[in-house]
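dude i think i finally got it to work??
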Amino acid sequence: MQKQNSLAKRAYLLHLNSLTIANGMKSGSFKSLYKGQGIDFSGVRDYLSGDDVRTIDWNVTSRMAKPYVKVFEEDKELDVFIILDKSLSMETGSIRTRMDCAVECASLLSMAASIISSPTGAVLFSSEIEFSCTPATGKKHLYSLLSRYEKQLNTKQKGSALDSALIVAEKLLRKRSLVIIISDFRSKGWERPFASLCHKNDVIALRITDSSDTILPVLGSVTFTDPETSFSESLPTHSKKFARAWREYNEQKTDAWTHECLRRGAFPFTLNTASDAATELCKLFYKRGAS
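look at this
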């Protein structure tokens, strides 16, 4: 009974927080993402004086022996697509794991999209593609996504299939969509498929960070192991020179990631594991709308 109450409370809090994010999506900050959406052909009508001659439907005009123009309707429904990293490196973190933070973000974003009736799809990956689906609406679909986000993966294989996830996402999307990549971006070979995905969609790169990325606790010589490669090395955390090199290395990696996002037209946003995900996501859409 206590576990059920805990789950119910968590679901209630997620819903409350997603309402705030949904309001941010609707109130201008999200509207800017609709720019560049396609237009769908909806039919023809009689030509009227002043109509652009380039819109004349010559096939219908020749059949009917009088001029007709094509009528188009703007596609205002925006699909939302989540790419969620569940690789082993996401299980690291100081206060809480990057995985916990990423799952919460994916859940909040999916619930917010559902509130404003935006079809939502997803790709979940670790060392391989674990799950994928095209954007859809409805409570059953939403609950299925939330369950997938929370589900513990059985695979413990090393590596990150971020590149494959980006390729799968592009294949699944039939029109320009809002794509949100939630990852630590600790992977190789993702830049080319990332560029292709950005060319056809509005992309937000949501990078999950941790305080340990820049500052390590002073504990003397400590053995660190890379969860993706199992490579281990003893590092002198007490050394000021090493601490500075550690910080500068990670800052350079962050700068390179930010540069790659910006030159591809994506919106880079970092979220620390110690931050409140709902608050930061509200800031995300405010900044995205203001940019």
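The beta strands are 39-46, 68-74, 80-85, 120-125, 129-136, 178-183, 202-209, 221-225, 232-236, 267-272.
im so relieved honestly
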